[in-house]
């Protein structure tokens, strides 16, 4: 279980104040908030890329408490396809992630087939469309074989067929015990397979829906 205790986030202004939440294995969680309210910053903190002003984030497994540094290989986060080096290929990234996170134990070819990457997997990323880049990023999550996935707007750039493919991917990953935490828009189609939706409002994290949808558009 990934736990947040009394977390406070501040960048140029305070985004979250004394937030608490728990994320269990085999479950999916959505983060919904207006732009600039702290969704991406929270994911960065959970990934260990950004420090919180106050509070604590840790993993609890078999009654043992693990900090984020010692748990790094249990968590995978790749914020956006904009991070991809245009001179490398999907194949380069999948090999790297498989080696560094999964210790080479994942069948890359099987994942390439699932995400239909074969036609371009060894081409330089500068030749990819947005959808091809996004499928590469999602394939990286599968290759990581980690317990916790942190995803920022994971369906960005996907057409309808690949959105359905991704929904199936989420469902199967949950069954295998993966914990998935993703940011999304209000009434995102992924909410139907989510175990809990957290709403960021007034610097708090709540699993109670707001009445006014326009607050999250």
From TrEMBL:
UniProt entry keywords in alphabetical sequence: ATP-binding, Nucleotide-binding, Transport
Pfam families: ABC_tran
Molecular function terms, GO-annotated: ATP binding; ATP hydrolysis activity
Record-linked InterPro entries: AAA+_ATPase, ABC_transporter-like_ATP-bd, ABC_Transporter_VariousFunc, P-loop_NTPase
Domain of life: Bacteria
Gene3D superfamilies the record matches: P-loop containing nucleotide triphosphate hydrolases (3.40.50.300)
ABC transporter domain boundaries: 2-216
PANTHER family recorded: ABC TRANSPORTER ATP-BINDING PROTEIN ALBC-RELATED (PTHR42939:SF1)
Protein name in UniProt: ABC transporter domain-containing protein
């Amino acid at each position: 279980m990934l736990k947040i205790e009394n977390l406070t986030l501040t960048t140029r202004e305070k985004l979250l104040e004394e937030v608490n939440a728990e994320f269990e294995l085999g479950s999916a969680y959505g983060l919904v908030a207006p732009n600039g309210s702290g969704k991406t910053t929270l994911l960065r903190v959970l990934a260990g890329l950004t420090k919180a002003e106050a509070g604590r984030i840790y993993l609890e497994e078999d009654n043992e408490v693990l900090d984020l540094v010692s748990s790094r290989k249990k968590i995978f986060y790749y914020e956006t396809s904009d991070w991809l080096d245009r001179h490398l290929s999907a194949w380069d990234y999948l090999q790297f992630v498989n080696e560094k996170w999964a210790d080479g134990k994942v069948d890359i070819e099987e994942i390439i087939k699932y995400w239909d990457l074969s036609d371009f997997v060894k081409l330089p990323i500068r030749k990819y469309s947005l959808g091809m880049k996004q499928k590469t990023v999602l394939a990286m999550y599968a290759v990581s074989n980690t317990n916790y996935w942190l995803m920022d707007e994971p369906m960005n750039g996907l057409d309808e067929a690949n959105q359905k493919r991704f929904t199936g991917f989420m469902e199967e990953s949950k069954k295998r015990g993966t914990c998935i935490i993703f940011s999304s828009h209000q009434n995102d189609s992924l909410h139907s397979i989510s175990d809990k939706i957290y709403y960021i409002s007034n610097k708090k994290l709540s699993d109670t829906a707001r009445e006014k949808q326009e607050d999250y558009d």
